[in-house]
Amino acid sequence: MIFRVAKCPSCSRRSHVEAPKKRSNISPGICRCGVAMKWMSDSWYIRVRGGTCCYPTFNQAEEEHGAVIKNVAEDKSFLNRIKPVSWDDAEKRLLQELNERNQPRTVTFYEGRLKTLKAAFGKKMINKISREDIDDYVTSRLRLVSETSVNRELTTLRRLLLFAQKRKWLFENPMKDYKMFEEKERERVLTEDEEEKLYTACLDKRAPDHLFPIVITARETMLRKTDVLTLRISEIDFEDGVIRKKVVKQRRGKEEVI
């Protein structure tokens, strides 16, 4: 990573800010105390095997950074010093962190996709997963599932590899700049005839009694399946005819009136 050092003029806090751009007039951001930080110098830095090297221009730092990555990739003795971590250990550590920082639904999302990924990568050490392995995985999965499903699995794999990279279990992330599939928005809705057939099937004697209320609620509120199935009586205001549902998004619960 190429970075610059910024300092807060108020609290003197220092921060390493990634600087992939050549322009020096880019703001380093805002400090935790609310004051705009300032660059300490016009120098650019790169990390080399635990140390730091300083360069007067971005071009020099970028050139040296590319050379370092190439040399390290060819240096087998250095790669062998990276802590070998199995897929199972990395998965276990990641799920522990997710449980501490995320809602149960988010954890369930990752658990399901990690199980699928484990079938392909479970026997490999984390630092042995290559870009070619990922390409082969994508090719095989596209025979079974949609591009959208593959994107979700690749997102999970990227999260795991970033988690491993931060802990120095691998040097270069093979998922870096990996191109995902472009997803198309869903535009189709049920026709009146299809709605009628759906409601008729739900009211059939062979259908369970709770199916029709679930379908009607989902159709009229556009809530997700999980939100409909976890709906409570206390969240329904029968007098005003509204549902006040606490929908969890991005680690924060937000109450939405429907």
Instruction: Output the structural class.
Output: alpha+beta
The sequence of SSEs as H and E is: EEEEEHHHHHHHHHEEE
Helix fraction bin:
40-55%
Q: What is the alpha-carbon Rg in Å?
A: 25 Å
- The coarse overall form would be extended
**CATH architectural group of the largest domain:** Orthogonal Bundle
Strand residues, percent: 15-25%
The number of E-state strands comes to: 8
Give a written overview of the molecule.
The chain is of the alpha+beta class and 258 residues long. It has helices at 58-74, 76-80, 87-101, 104-121, 131-141, 147-166, 192-202, 211-221, 225-229, and strands at 2-7, 14-18, 38-39, 44-48, 51-55, 236-237, 242-249, 252-257. The chain has three domains: 2-80, no CATH class; 87-166, DNA polymerase, domain 1; 192-257, no CATH class. The protein has nine helices and eight strands. It is extended and about 75 Å long.
Q: What topology emerges from the helices and strands here?
A:
Layout: E1 2-7, E2 14-18, E3 38-39, E4 44-48, E5 51-55, H1 58-74, H2 76-80, H3 87-101, H4 104-121, H5 131-141, H6 147-166, H7 192-202, H8 211-221, H9 225-229, E6 236-237, E7 242-249, E8 252-257
Antiparallel strand pairs: 1-2, 1-3, 1-4, 4-5, 6-7, 7-8
Helix pairs in contact: 3-4, 4-6
Question: Summed up, what is this model?
Answer:
With 258 residues, the chain is of the alpha+beta class. It has nine helices and eight strands.
Keywords:
single chain; 258 residues; alpha+beta; DNA polymerase, domain 1; 3 domains; five-stranded antiparallel β-sheet; three-stranded antiparallel β-sheet; 9 helices; 8 strands
